[in-house]
Each structure stands twice: as C-alpha cells, then as structure tokens.
Model the fold of this input.
Amino acid sequence: EADYIISTVPLEMNSPKIIRVNHMLRTDDIEKIRRIMFQKHDTLDAETVRQFFREEGFYVDKEFRTREECLEFLTDEAIANRWLDEEGKNSVFERECMSSTAIGDFVAIPHALSTVGTISNISVLILKEPVQWEEFPVRVVFLLNIEQSKATLWEKLFLKLYSFIKGHHGLESLLKHKTYDKFLKEFLAVL
Done:
C-alpha cells in the first residue's frame, strides 16, 4: 500500500493518492505535490491534538508489576474502545521486543507498528509505583496509536510529547495533578 503515487503517465485508476506531473518536472508540479502531500492535516494544532487524547483513555494510579502488564492493559483497553485491533496489539508487543520504548525520566512511549485497524488515540497511564521497563523505571506510559492516514503527524506528536516531558516539567505536573484536563491544558500550551 502506497502513501502516494507520482506519475508522468495517465493511470487507469482514479485516487487522491495519485499525483500526475509533467515528464519534465516544473515549478507548478512541485507546488502540486507539496499542496497534496503536505496539506493542513499535517499541522499540529490544539484542535488536532484534542482528537488524539480522550478522557476515557486516561488512567490514573494503576498498579502493575511489569511492562507486559502495562502493555496488556493499555492495548486491551484500546481494543475495547475500538482504537486498536488484535494485529495492532500484537505489533505493540513486537515493537517493544525490537527495543525498549522507555525514554528515561520515568516515561515510556510504546506504539504500534501496524496501524491498519487503528483509530488515532494516545492513551495515558499513570502508575502508582514505577515498573522496570528494561533499563529504566517507568511511572507514566503514553501508548500511541496513529492511524495510517495521519501518519505524517506521528513524528510531530512524538517530538512534542518528548519536549513536554523533558523540557516543560510535564512529567512533574502530570504526577502531581493526575487529571486529564490539567494535562491536556498544559500540553496544548506548549504547541
């Protein structure tokens, strides 16, 4: 499955993913590609971010002993809320086996490799006590499920979340207040 097809010849199929350009690429062709591939759904604003964080995906003071228990809980909840399918759940565990998603400072950001059956959502899990996540203790877990059509936002969201945690005292506030509204207000303030 391709994100886009850029072609110099007419194709028999019709799709918004097909971008027809001239044989000799011109400035207007480049603008056309830029306009189609990097349109507004690429921007990370407050309205877009609100679509990813849902109050029913915000879990506080949970008690788990292992990373696997945390991932089981979050992926099962995502399936129950229809944000993730079984393939996506399996891909979260597969990704975690490749390398740990703990980023230090008591935070892990696991994510699915397969996003075919995914509705974009970021779940937040705040633990009562840290669990060992390979080499790091973790108290806050952000499970990222970003659907394929919004894949261009994945890196932007990840980097904003990372910046919020590391540079804006986001973790301290999250552990202190433990509320969805306070977290979302503070996260949106750093966009």
The CA atoms of residues 62 and 68 lie 14 Å apart. The first helix runs from residue 27 to 37.
